[in-house]
Design a protein that fits this description.
Elements lengths: L2 E6 L7 H14 L4 E5 L7 H4 L10 H5 L5 H4 L1 E2 L6 E4 L12 H11 L5 E5 L6 H6 L5 E6 L3 H16 L6 E7 L1 H5 L6 H8 L3 E6 L2 H8 L10 H13 L25
Parallel strand pairs: 1-5, 1-6, 2-4, 2-5, 6-7, 7-8
Antiparallel strand pairs: 3-4
Helix pairs in contact: 1-11
The structure holds adenosine-5'-diphosphate and magnesium ion.
Length: 261
């Protein structure tokens, strides 16, 4: 049965689009028919992250306005035949696509794809609320800092108010050296604070930015972030992959004298 996942965050710039593209690629590499949907209307960027920006002609808002058929707007990924993208509009606003329209488009996508990953706009506004009814489950992306955590708390509360189940958590841009020094929250501490299950964490990795700038796919590099997304993908598919505690020294569960949460 196909599943639609919303990839959301309270704060912008935490890595939602990066995760949507990378997890989409990892799922497709495992032969899962996967469609990434850019729902950040007005701030289209998933096409760039998936290296499909030269091919965009139509977008999700064109489909909503019946200016083209859904299959005309979909772009197939050149590097993976199981992966497609439905691009966002460059000009529409966040509230311009009604919840019923998202429901209709996603239910059509479910007929062809096993996994639909929806890259949400940041925050808890209309753009997010209009997407919630169309998505089965949610992944929350957070960086290990107080601002992102506070915004994620608000997002989780909004999801609850809107009747969604408990989301799963991804902690991004983790610096093990800082965690060890007690200068950054460990992923487990963030998950405890937000009281949501941790699906995995991704290290801060310069290869992500380098690959973006050279229009390459960091998932095809043997870098720490690619390995981390691969582990997340395995857990996402229900495989057991142990998650070692970041920063824990042998015999200790957590470094003492660090941040006080
Ligand atoms: N783990 C990471 N390590 C290094 N850079 C990252 C990492 N995750 C994301 N970035 C960078 O952070 C910026 C914001 O990421 P993006 O996915 O666009 O965030 P969002 O979609 O949440 O606004 C991008 O420049 C991206 O390349
Ligand atoms: Mg984004």
């Amino acid at each position: 049965m196909s599943q639609s996942w919303l990839i959301a965050s309270g704060k912008g710039g935490v890595g939602k689009s990066m995760l949507t593209a990378a997890l989409g690629f990892a799922l497709a590499r495992r032969q899962m028919m996967t469609c990434c949907v850019d729902a950040d209307q007005g701030l289209r960027d998933l096409d760039m992250l998936m290296n499909l920006h030269n091919q965009v002609v139509y977008n999700l808002v064109d489909v909503a306005n019946r200016e083209c058929k859904l299959k005309t707007a979909l772009l197939d990924h050149s590097g993976s035949e199981k992966l497609s993208l439905l691009p966002a509009s460059q000009s529409a606003g966040h509230g311009d696509v009604e919840p019923e329209t998202y429901v209709k488009i996603l239910s059509k996508l479910k007929k062809r794809y096993a996994y639909i990953l929806v890259d949400a706009p940041a925050g808890v506004g209309r753009g997010l609320k209009n997407l919630l009814p169309a998505c089965d489950d949610c992944l929350i992306v957070v960086t290990p800092d107080d601002v992102a955590i506070r915004n994620a708390e608000r997002l989780i509360a909004v999801m609850e108010e809107e009747g969604k189940g408990r989301p799963l958590l991804i902690v991004n841009r983790v610096r093990e050296d800082l965690v060890k020094k007690g200068l950054m929250y460990s992923p487990q501490v963030v998950a405890n604070q937000l009281d949501v299950p941790l699906l995995g964490y991704i290290p801060d990795d310069a290869q992500i930015i380098a690959s973006l700038n050279t229009h390459e796919n960091f998932m095809e590099k043997n870098c720490p972030a690619a390995k981390a997304v691969e582990r997340i993908c395995q857990r996402f598919l229900g495989e057991y992959v142990p998650m070692p505690e970041v920063g824990a020294k042998k015999g200790l569960f957590r470094r003492k004298g660090g941040l006080s949460v």
